[in-house]
Amino acid sequence: MGNLPFSASLFGTGVTKSEKGSEGKFITRKISKGITHYYAPFTQAANQTVCPAKDLSNSHSLGSSFLHSAPSAATDPSSSPLLSDTLPQTLLSSQNTHQTHSASSNRPILLFFSWLGAQPGTVAKYTEMYLERGMDVLLVQSSVFHFLWPSWGLDYGLEVLKVLEEPQFSGRPMLVYASSIGGYTFTQVITHIAQRPKEHADVAQRVTGHIYDSLVAGSLEHMAIGLGKTLLPSLEGLVKNMAMFYFWLFKTQTVDFYNSGIEVFNNSPITAPALFFFCENDALCDPYAVEKILDIWRRRGVTVQSRKWKKSIHAAHMRCHPEEYLSTLEQFLNSLPVSSLKANI
């Protein structure tokens, strides 16, 4: 027995290669508008853009068992396809595509649902940790419209689910990391699993653990406040009031979907061990609502760990409390069972 290995990469049609040192390399490939795959290949793909490595050697380290103080594999935001939907797409030949896919097809996957408006440089600090330990990373980025019109969010959730069931990803163990609105998007994925449990049983069983950082939880007011702080902080109050009116006006298309999603999340078909990061002063994350979820899951027999701070910043706990955050994360990851499909590090 051992622990789930770390490391990650992204996947898609557009391809960017970032080089770390002389050996540490990963490729960024865009699957769709919001889904990207990071992976470390054993063979080189064609028509790749080489990007300089970004030095994160001064970053907080978990120690040799978790992070290395080597230069980061983060790419420059201007050349990274993480958020840009206007970058030209490079089509790989079927032969080279097969080579790069097969190179990482036996590695575990970090399914990373990022917060709204996540910037490439910040995202890289998270994916770096998992890339260092032999995992692929699937970055799933949400649009505010997925939240404002939940039926679109459900469509997006199904898109993510279908990607996970593609041959290059099927059968591979997964660690889920959902930050802020990412928890909502993951809920849209598990809604489809809950509705068709037999059809999607493989995906549910492949999740070895799931982590929630600053889960947006609580009342409709919490959701409205979250929109204001995220979209237009200078007009937070106005955005909040407009959002509350919008929820009232389109209740059957919004609130009813949110309530259904809460029910699905409370009774999630994903029963692997879970870890929650949250704080008491987060306007977007009601600590009492999170603690209620923890209680519900524990009564269902789910192994749940948590780390709560009195003061912190929404979706920025790693920056505010690096030592506590990383030690808690390391402890949780070390507790996860070994998968039958180990990564080749």
Written overview of the protein:
By secondary structure, this protein is α/β, with parallel strands linked by helices. It has one domain (9-334): Rossmann fold, CATH 3.40.50.1820. The protein has twelve helices and eleven strands. Strands 1, 2, 3, 4, 5, 6, 7, 8, 9, 10 and 11 form an eleven-stranded mixed sheet that branches. Helix 2 links the parallel strand 6 (109-113) and strand 7. Helix 4 (150-164) packs across helix 5. The longest helix is centred in the middle third of the chain and has 15 residues, at 150-164. It is globular, with a radius of gyration of 19 Å.
Keywords:
serine hydrolase activity, Rossmann fold, 11 strands, 11-stranded mixed beta sheet, alpha/beta, AB_hydrolase_fold, about 40% helix, DUF829_TMEM53
CATH class: Alpha Beta
How do the helices and strands follow one another from N- to C-terminus?
Answer: EEEEEHEHEHHEHHEHHHEHEHH
Which structural class do the helices and strands define?
A: alpha/beta
Under CATH, the homologous superfamily reads Alpha/Beta hydrolase fold, catalytic domain
Q: Tell me the radius of gyration.
A: 19 Å
Tell me, rounded to a whole number, the average pLDDT.
77
Q: State the CATH architecture.
A: 3-Layer(aba) Sandwich
GO molecular function: serine hydrolase activity
Produce the secondary structure layout.
Elements lengths: L8 E2 L4 E6 L3 E7 L4 E5 L9 E3 L42 H11 L4 E5 L6 H12 L4 E5 L3 H5 L1 H15 L9 E6 L1 H15 L5 H6 E7 L6 H12 L4 H14 L5 H12 L7 E6 L7 H13 L4 E6 L7 H4 L1 H14 L10
